Amino acid sequence: MAYLFLLVSLALVFLLIFSKGVLGKNDGKINSDVKNKLDRMLRIVCFAPIIVFVVIVIFILVHFKSRSYVRLSHAFFVADFWMYSVIFYYITIMTIKMKKLFTSITIIAVGVSVFSAIYLTQLQHYEGVFRSVNLMIPNFFAVVMLVVYYYVNYKLLTKDKK
């Protein structure tokens, strides 16, 4: 089961990179009013993980003193899935009138991201899934997901300003 979630995270990374390319090729067809409204959402999502991690670290230091490494790993991995669901939602709305097949793929990506985030939100599920795996492996995948997310987010938000 652990490898399934790792494979899903890797597939979402590649799909996000591919989606950025499709949006780049079709940016002339995008409604600028809708894009401006959705850009605000992406800007908020840029800062939300930082705030969440600060709050989680404070909770771990003050209240949850056991299994801090597992808790941080869990928060990191699940937050990435939530961020991916938001950016795939953004891409879905932007491409809804462009390509029907591509839009259906991004809708599936939103569903997979949300399902993965909801399923792994409980710490017991996360520990059960990654019981037989060294926690450095999901942390590595989470870092890859985070770097690709911020790269694509930056590219999506700055392509109008060129």
Give an overview in words.
By secondary structure, the chain is an all-alpha fold. The chain has one domain. It has 6 helices and no strands. The termini are far apart.
Secondary-structure topology with pairs:
Layout: H1 2-25, H2 32-62, H3 68-94, H4 100-121, H5 123-129, H6 136-158
Helix pairs in contact: 1-3, 1-4, 1-6, 2-3, 2-6, 3-4, 3-6
Can you tag this structure with a few keywords?
162 residues, globular, mainly alpha, 6 helices, 0% strand
What distance separates the N and C termini? 44 Å
Biggest β-sheet, characterized? none
The parts where pLDDT drops under 50 for at least 5 residues are: none
Number of domains: 1
Helix content: over 70%
Overall pLDDT score: 87
Rg (C-alpha, Å): 17 Å
How many beta-strand elements? Answer: 0
Compact overview of the structure:
The protein is an all-alpha fold. The protein is 83% helix and 0% strand.
